[in-house]
Amino acid sequence: MAVTAAVAVPAGRTLDDDLAVVLDRAAGRVEEFFARAQSLVCTETVHVQPLTYSLVSDGFGRTVESELRLTWNPTADGEAATEAQTLRQVMRVNGHLPRKNDRRNCTTPERHDTETQVLSMLLDGKRDDYDWTLAGTGKVDQRAALLLDYREKERISLEVRVSEGDEDCLTFDIRGGDRGRVWVDAETYDVLRLDQRLSGQVETRTPRLLQRRPGAMPHVSVERLDRSYRFKRVKFADPEETMVLPVSHTQIMVTHGNTAARQRVTTEYKKYRRFLTGGRVVPEPEQR
After folding, report:
1. Which pLDDT tens digit goes with each residue over 161-193?
2. Beta bridge partners of 134
3. What are the sequence ranges of the domains in the chain?
4. Does domain 15-274 have CATH number 2.50.20?
5. Distance CA 234, CA 37 (A)
6. Assign residue 256 a region: left if phi > 0, alpha if psi is -120 to 50, beta otherwise?
7. What average pLDDT score do residues 40-61 get?
8. Distance between CA atoms of 137 and 165, rounded to whole angstroms?
9. What does pTM read for this prediction?
10. 35: which residues sit within 8 A by CB, 6+ positions away?
């Protein structure tokens, strides 16, 4: 648990000056992470657990194991880098090899081969989409941390659509309205933790395809969407290297309307493997 305290601002400097320094250095570390992590593969284990109204486990959950890698394409000529994407290949579902009907279970790993890496929000081309404040100091896993609070400038909106090929699954696209906190290592400026939540409840009209069903509600709403990401140091050998990498992600989502549901998603990232490529110069064959 982070313990916050006041931030001391040296004479002659302003809090805004310190905020700019922290953001710039954290962004630099994120870019380094994206560049180095493209040589990594890890195992992602996602457990989706239905919840009761009191947010305790309700019945059996679902576990999906995948192989992940990162792709990033920083632009040239001084332009802002693009968002980094996580690429996913599902390997096992509830302990067995993936089956054709597994995609009908409405769980994210089986329906989304790619997703935006959350730390992309700190890149130069993205962080202007948020209002940032320096909130204090704290600790994460015994590491001193600087706290950055943020609020997304774009107004919150929700789009709900029926998933392609499966009328029993809905896809929720929420834009804007995020707010939260980033814990930045006070020594290295690596991100150690990132929390996100919605600034308020958001709703939209029920997709037309579902409006025709008996008892259909006119609106679908998302009452709660809380997410928390944790990062830790991971050591590699031959050659020796230490990187700060994602280790876990938790999410709680509560919806109402035709899709009244509550679920907790717990994700672990383990078994990081590094692949290094080598090369050699091959001389041209002698001309005869």
Report:
1. 877 666 667 778 889 999 999 999 999 999 999
2. 148
3. 15-274
4. yes
5. 12
6. beta
7. 90
8. 49
9. 0.83
10. 72, 74
